[in-house]
Write a sequence for this structure.
């Protein structure tokens, strides 16, 4: 088998191993090809296939979530505490934004289950109180824990989210943040576009600011950000997600959420794509780009 | 982005254990219900034991916490599934529609991007990938359930997975580099 054929077969085996596992024959071939190509088991390349499968499985499960019972959650916690040592004195209510949150099962009325129901009720009251105080509870992020008396479960209370402009300013004030001006292309959507992108590699966080970029109809097209990372194959820039420009004038600020770590960003580019974005851009409409200064 | 919990768990923080169960319990349960429906409770307990043991291995620079957890969960579920084979259920075969919908923040951006990439696969690639990745079917089971030849199933699964991997930015670092010309 030539080196090229060996690499191609190995990629197939990476896929099979991650998706369905390998039988004995394939395991032997796999070990042989790893050795031939100078790779080791558990390499980042091998792990990337398993990580991809996990992300797909995760997406499938998250779109149709099912709640886990509180009784099972308690069993899991007790097992963990057995492994770690003694259990803590008090339980903690589920985080309010948890996916498919754990729920109680009323048919199992053990002392522990009854106690848990009481805890949840107390937690729910506190959460309702927090919700009444906070005007926009769904837009906030969990950041701090409020200490309460031992007889009441600890409840996570989210603070109000800062406006994007303030978040951008805060990031700009941090060491290591780079600010790059957008360069418009000849695309009609960006004729009058100005603005910048700020990015902090350590924080893996950034913001785009636009002024004069054409308003889009999200049902017809959307803007999509691409981040080029020096450490990655430039044929596949990191997909920075889709966004909309919802007004004709004034600044629009968009937060950047990179799905994977970006090492050294070498270029930010915005394209026009179909609603929902694309996996690989045909680059038919590039509207703005921004590069770090050398 | 939600603060990571596994390093705290690795350091013996029991409060983080509670937070982890609250944050990811529903997700792990949902995975177990799909891949190990007859004994999901046992599977979930095994997964969490694996997770506590593996917490110290989590590297935030190598991926998101939720994907790390899903990797551990899926690995355990596939191991269990191999021991107890089951017939593909009818509902699995229809569960290969484009992955559209709103996901909770806990799921993370990587799964969102994966969902989008899967949605844009060719229908037969998507069906095979969903049946193998989300339901844990083997190539042979997918071939039997869909009527596709085994070789076609394998080709669709591999091609679909490689496309999604590239879309997540995990493509081969050894591949020929093309600079950013054409974008600027």
């Amino acid at each position: 088998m030539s080196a090229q054929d060996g690499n191609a077969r190995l990629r197939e085996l990476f896929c099979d191993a991650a998706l369905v596992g390998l039988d004995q024959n394939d395991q032997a071939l796999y070990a042989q090809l790893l050795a031939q190509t100078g790779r080791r088991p558990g390499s980042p390349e091998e792990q990337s296939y398993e990580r991809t499968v996990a992300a797909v499985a995760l997406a499938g499960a998250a779109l149709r979530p099912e709640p886990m019972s509180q009784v099972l959650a308690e069993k899991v916690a007790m097992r963990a505490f057995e492994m770690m040592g003694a259990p803590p004195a008090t339980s903690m209510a589920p985080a309010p934004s948890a996916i498919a949150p754990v729920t109680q099962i009323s048919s199992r009325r053990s002392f522990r289950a009854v106690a848990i129901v009481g805890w949840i009720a107390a937690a729910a009251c506190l959460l309702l109180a927090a919700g009444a105080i906070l005007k926009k509870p769904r837009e906030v992020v969990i950041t701090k824990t409020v200490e309460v008396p031992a007889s009441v479960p600890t409840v996570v209370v989210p603070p109000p989210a800062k406006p994007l402009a303030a978040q951008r300013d805060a990031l700009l004030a941090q060491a290591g943040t780079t600010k790059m001006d957008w360069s418009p292309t000849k695309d009609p959507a960006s004729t009058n576009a100005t603005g910048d992108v700020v990015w902090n590699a350590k924080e893996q966080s950034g913001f785009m600011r636009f002024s004069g970029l054409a308003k889009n109809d999200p049902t017809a097209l959307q803007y999509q950000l691409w981040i080029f990372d020096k450490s990655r194959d430039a044929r596949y820039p990191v997909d920075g997600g889709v966004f909309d420009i919802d007004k004709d004038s004034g600044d629009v600020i968009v937060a950047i959420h990179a799905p994977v770590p970006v090492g050294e960003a070498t270029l930010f580019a915005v394209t026009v794509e179909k609603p929902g974005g694309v996996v690989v851009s045909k680059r038919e409409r590039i509207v703005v780009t921004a590069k770090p200064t050398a | 982005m939600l603060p990571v919990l596994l390093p705290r768990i690795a350091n013996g923080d029991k409060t983080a254990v509670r937070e982890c169960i609250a944050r990811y319990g529903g997700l792990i349960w949902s995975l177990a219900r799909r891949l190990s429906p007859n004994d999901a409770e046992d599977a979930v307990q095994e997964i969490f034991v694996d997770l506590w043991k593996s917490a110290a291995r989590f590297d935030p620079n190598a991926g998101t916490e939720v994907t790390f957890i899903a990797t551990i969960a899926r690995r355990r579920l596939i191991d269990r599934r191999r021991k107890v084979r089951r017939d593909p259920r009818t509902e699995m075969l229809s569960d290969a529609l484009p992955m559209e919908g709103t996901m909770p923040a806990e799921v993370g951006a990587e799964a969102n991007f994966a969902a989008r990439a899967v949605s844009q696969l060719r229908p037969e690639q998507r069906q095979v990938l969903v049946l193998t990745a989300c339901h844990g079917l083997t190539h042979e089971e997918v071939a039997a359930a869909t009527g596709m030849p085994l070789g076609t199933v394998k080709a669709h699964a591999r091609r679909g997975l490689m496309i999604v991997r590239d879309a997540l930015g995990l493509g081969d670092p050894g591949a020929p580099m093309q600079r950013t010309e054409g974008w600027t």
User: Anything to note?
Assistant: Residues 87-159 of chain A have pLDDT under 50 and may be disordered. Helices of chain A lie at 3-19, 24-36, 44-63, 70-84, 111-133, 164-172.
